[in-house]
Structure formats: structure tokens, C-alpha cells
Fold this protein.
Amino acid sequence: MWALRLRLPDVLFDTTVDAHGVHARLHDGARSWATISTPPNGGALAAQGGPRRLVDELEAAWDAWMADGAIGLYDHGMTVTADDEQFVWAGDPDTGTRWRLPVPAPAPQRHPAGARGRVEPACVRM
């Protein structure tokens, strides 16, 4: 899942396991969705809808992960530079495959006390 999330960062994944097999639901947060079920007797059933073909994208991401050697979770690392560049790498921080992470938007500025004017507490008599 970790490696697939790196390759499809905007796709939301949810998985469940029950007596009927393993089920994955994908959504792009907009209009595209997919479901994939693998029954206990093997095979896989997939359905998808919307403008993006999420099953196809997931399959391509899986193939890329396999081509990279099926790198495990603990063979990944993350680097943040002094310039706020952020990336996850696989295998080696200098030569491994990299996935650039978006730089988070700056937090809203808080006004120092009194900068917006002082609001006196209201007094309510009952």
C-alpha cells in the first residue's frame, strides 16, 4: 500500500477482508472510483467509473513497483532539505527512485494580541 500511495498520491484507498475475500475501494476525491475484489478461490473482479481509469492506474503503479524490485516499506526513507524540498526515496537516498512531496501551504498567520483591536468581554446580567 505504501508504494502504491507514493505512485498515486491523490487516490484514496480503503481495504477490507471478509469471508468473501479481500476488497479494495479507490476514489480520486472527485468523480472517479474503482472496486477490486479477490475472492478466496482466486482471480480478481474489478469495476471502475468516472473519467479516470483507476484500476488501470493502480495496475501500472503495481507494475512499476514490481519493476523496481518490490521495495518494502522499511526500504524507503524521507528527506527534507533546508529549502523545504521534501521527497521519499527507495533503496538509497542519493541514487534510489524519488517521489517529490508537495510542500504544505503555510499556516495562516495569527495576529499578535491587540493587532486587530481589543475586544472586551461582554457582561450579561441575569
